[in-house]
Amino acid sequence: MKARGKTSKGQVRIIGGERRGHRLHFVDQRGDLRPSSDRMRETLFNWLQAELPGARVLDLFAGSGALGAEALSRGAGQALLVEKKRDRCADLSRQLTPLFGERVRVHCAEALKWLARCEERFDLVFIDPPYDLGLAAPACEALEALGLLKPDARIYVESRRHDAAPAVPESWERLREKDGGDVRAQLYRKE
User: Fold this and answer.
1) In this predicted model, what pLDDT tens digit does every residue of 133-164 receive, in sequence order?
2) How far apart are CA 12 and CA 75, in angstroms?
3) How confident is the model at residue 8 (pLDDT cuts 50, 70, 90)?
4) Is the per-residue pLDDT at 172 higher than 80?
5) 37-46, 118-127, 146-155 — which is least confidently predicted?
6) 3-state DSSP call for residue 33?
7) In what order do the strands lie in the sheet with 172-180?
8) Which of 4, 36, 144, 177 is 20 to 30 A from 45 (CA-CA)?
9) What angle do CA 145, 149, 151 make, to 5 degrees?
């Protein structure tokens, strides 16, 4: 466990596509970043391989930016990353814009408030919030209630394996599920 206030430096590697091997660096001042592991991302993007070309992607709790960057590297048309911490937003913009140009946008906002203002619709959404804040289920509900998902959209939800899985709308069909370490990964399709 990291001490409060301690700063740690980390990095995640893009594992596939046009930017394979590129490293994204981040500073974790609060010890609360938990980037998806290479193994879990590899599994996820194997699941999504056919869905990525040209997709409009939302990485709702962007953190390190690993999921949004991986989607862009593997052919997504556009990715919008939402992160509430200003320092992380600036860092994401600084690193991702040179790699992906106008295909990437970073918004600094609280995810649920941002969703309430959003007027776009998405083919693919990543929901991987901090586990202990209870944000996954409300985010899923907001995506559905606000009509932000295109027909046949895919939604990835990551949660702590030993907790109850976050509730999702009844109209979502679970396509895949995998546990790894402390993580439960679930992929849904909007019916």
Assistant:
1) 899 999 999 999 999 999 999 999 999 999 98
2) 19
3) very low
4) yes
5) 37-46
6) coil
7) 104-108, 78-83, 56-59, 122-127, 149-160, 183-190, 172-180
8) 144
9) 115
Helix, strand, coil shares of the chain, percent, nearest 5, are 30, 30, 40
Token readout for 45 is: 């993007």
The CA distances from residue 159 to 82, 87, 129, in Å, are 18, 24, 8
Written as six digits, the tokens of 176 are 């895949």
> What are residue 171's phi and psi, to 5 degrees?
-80, 0
Question: For residue 93, what are its two tokens?
Answer: 């913009």
176: helix, strand or coil: strand
Residue 88: count other Cβ atoms within 10 Å of its Cβ. 22
58 has which bridge partners?
80, 125
Q: What is the pLDDT of residue 49?
A: 94
pLDDT value for 3:
36
3-class SS at 9?
Answer: strand
Question: Which of 134, 131, 118 has its CA nearest to residue 158?
Answer: 131
Round the average pLDDT of the chain to a whole number and report it: 90
User: DSSP secondary-structure letter at 40?
Assistant: H
Q: At what angle do helices 86-100 and 66-73 cross, to 10 degrees?
A: 10
Helix (H) or strand (E) holding 156: strand 149-160
Crossing angle (nearest 10°) for helices 66-73 and 38-48? 40
